[in-house]
Amino acid sequence: MKILECRNLTKEYLSGDGVIKAIDDISLSFEQGEFVAITGPSGSGKSTLLHNLSSLENPTGGEIFYNGESLKKYNDNQLSILRRRRFGFVFQSYNLVQELTGYENILLPVMLDKKKPDEEYINKIIEVLNIGDRLSHLPSALSGGQQQRIAIARAIANKPSILFADEPTGNLDGKTGREVLSLLKYVSHEFGITLIMVTHDLSVAEQADRILTLEDGKIVRDTKAEAESK
Ligand SMILES: Nc1ncnc2c1ncn2[C@@H]1O[C@H](COP(=O)(O)OP(=O)(O)O)[C@@H](O)[C@H]1O
Ligand SMILES: [Mg+2]
Predict the structure, then answer these.
(1) Is the C-beta atom of 20 inside 6 A of ligand 1?
(2) Does ligand 1 have an atom closer than 6 angstroms to the CB of 56?
């Protein structure tokens, strides 16, 4: 099933020197449960693509479909509900709330949604991510790898259908990065979550089912399209 699709997606920014086409006419679709890596050189538009696919930013042109429905019909409030309930986000810099404990950070999206936490599910996430002994700590008392595991737990606490990750291992040492990557893979597989991950690191991208390569805002390679055309 197609969970997310974009058609003729374009994103332009105005800069001092004129218009930058950060995303240049991209059409793509993502299957539910797929693990896709978006790779390419710095400045090629990876983060911009992720932000537009996840409605954190508004595209300049083109259309995005979630579960077959055009997001053009959604107002800002409906888009923020979609992001809160159906999408999870993991960033390079963890972005935890510094004043809240690990556990409070994990529950934050559920609380924002005024829902009762599914304790069985939350406990399972905590067990899988091996953060049970870090729940009462503030982020400042945690290592980078521990903070990112808390951030992953937070990102999936609402049982999203898509997890968007932008350079999730970018601030971690090699070994910790590999552990976090394998946990991301594991939780997305275990809970049937589509994983769309930006990375400039080819050894990280190679872990994915499918690799998209960006250059100057265009897709120059899609391993899935290549496999299908064989
Ligand atoms: N908010 C912005 N305003 C102006 N230009 C931007 C903005 N965000 C990104 N860009 C430009 O768009 C291009 C793609 O950036 P980005 O998506 O961050 O690349 P990547 O994540 O692949 O390094 C770059 O030329 C960058 O300078
Ligand atoms: Mg980026």
Answers:
(1) yes
(2) no
Name all domains of the chain by residue range, CATH numbers in brackets.
Answer: 2-228 (3.40.50.300)
Per-residue pLDDT band for 169 (boundaries 50, 70, 90) equals very high
For the chain, the average pLDDT equals 95
- List pLDDT tens digits, range 43-55: 999 999 999 999 9
First and final C-alpha spacing in the chain: 22
- Classify strands 194-198 and 162-166 as parallel, antiparallel or unpaired: parallel
CB 47 near ligand 1, within 6 Å: yes
Q: What is the mean pLDDT of residues 13-34?
A: 95
For residue 52 and ligand 1, the question of a CB distance below 6 A is answered with no
Q: At a CB cut-off of 8 Å and minimum separation 6, what does 22 contact?
A: 11, 12, 13, 45, 48, 217
* Each residue's pLDDT tens digit, 75-108: 999 999 999 999 999 999 999 999 999 999 999 9
Q: How do strand 61-66 and strand 2-15 relate by DSSP bridges?
A: antiparallel
Of 154, 212, 213, 152, whose CA–CA distance to 185 is shortest?
Answer: 152
Check: CB of residue 154 under 8 Å from CB of residue 109.
Answer: yes
Q: What pTM, to 2 d.p., does this model score? A: 0.96
User: Which residue, by CA, sits nearest to atom 27 of ligand 1?
Assistant: 43
Nearest to 50 by CA among 67, 34, 69, 36: 36
The residue whose CA has the least distance to atom 17 of ligand 1 is 45
DSSP sequence for 5-64: EEEEEEEEEEETTEEEEEEEEEEEEEETT-EEEEE-STTSSHHHHHHHHTTSS--SEEEE
